[in-house]
Amino acid sequence: MRTFAPIVAGIGQMRYGHFLTYNLVGGLLWAVGVALAGYFLGNAIPDVDRYLLPIVVFIVLISVAPAAYHMLKDAETRRSLLSLVRKPLVRLHILH
Question: What is the pTM of this model?
């Protein structure tokens, strides 16, 4: 959301003063909110650090999945990606 806000504000011709105010308040709320959520979740869930890596991996996979799906859906893109991956594997004698 915060990535697209400046673009939408510019397209909508929002005055810079309003944008700056919303951006500062939003950034402050986001920073405080994330820090408080981490603090309370860290206290509520014992050994939360052991769940951290699987959660991060899940978030990354969910974030990349739509782009990967669209790239692999197109046959030409799929062929070029496969050839791109195949060349180093052939050089390393993993594939023939």
Answer: 0.49
